[in-house]
Amino acid sequence: MQLSEEGNHVVIVDKNRDSFRRLTHFRGKTLVGSGFDRDVLLQADAARADALAAVTSGDNTNILCARIARDTYHIKNVVARIYDPARAEIYMKLGIPTVATSLWTTQQVKRWILPNDETVEWTDGAGNLHLVERIVPDNLAGQPLKNFNYGANVRVVGLIRGGQGRVNIEGLFAQEDDILEFLVTPDGLEDLEALLVSGPK
Predict the structure, then answer these.
(1) Which of 9, 18, 85, 196 is the least crowded, having the fewest Cβ atoms under 10 Å away?
(2) Range of the domain at 87
(3) Cα-based angle 19, 76, 135 (whole degrees, multiple of 5)
């Protein structure tokens, strides 16, 4: 709902037609069927999609949908909901980001399917500092994390890798699918987005 309300073109696929009754004021498209059915994916215009979130009640179905989206339709931003955390590491090795059920929120999903989203996670009372999370762009993987600090306005303060968070990041290098935690000033928000597009200077 939130993604649609923000102006994104959203297609929801569900086997149960009754599920759509809960979608009030939804502006997107709904399709009855399976997320890995070729005919359904054709109707959903999967070949032109920018992102896919697989959110069924089954881990195997979610990972199958995610892999088809990535490998067959070359959808770059893919995330799968996962109920069994023991499988998360396996799926990450397959290149499929996962979000555990306990963490499944719109904001968590948006981090993966809208990596350029400018969402701020936290702001201090005076509005002088913001905490933001950003996924490492593929072209910046391999860069030392210290290179992601920018002037006096942007500082890397933490890292989430493979579902595990850490603040002792000295000497580490960025990897694909890492989530970096940045502390930035208001001016630093623009600097951060420029850094992630153009790379460290």
Answers:
(1) 18
(2) 2-113
(3) 95
Beta pairing partners, 182:
132, 156
Q: Long-range contact list for 170-174, CB < 8 A, 24+ apart?
A: 170/146, 171/144, 172/144, 172/145, 173/142, 173/143, 173/144, 173/145, 174/136, 174/140, 174/141, 174/142, 174/143, 174/144, 174/145, 174/148
Supply the pTM of this predicted model. 0.55
Q: Please, which residues bridge with residue 134 across strands? A: 180
Pairing, β 130-135 against β 179-184: antiparallel
Q: What is the pLDDT confidence band of residue 11, given thresholds at 50, 70 and 90?
A: very high
Distance CA 46, CA 122 (A): 34
User: How many domains does the chain fold into?
Assistant: 2
Return the residue matching tokens 């890397």.
156
Any idea what the CATH number is for the domain that residue 102 is in?
A: 3.40.50.720
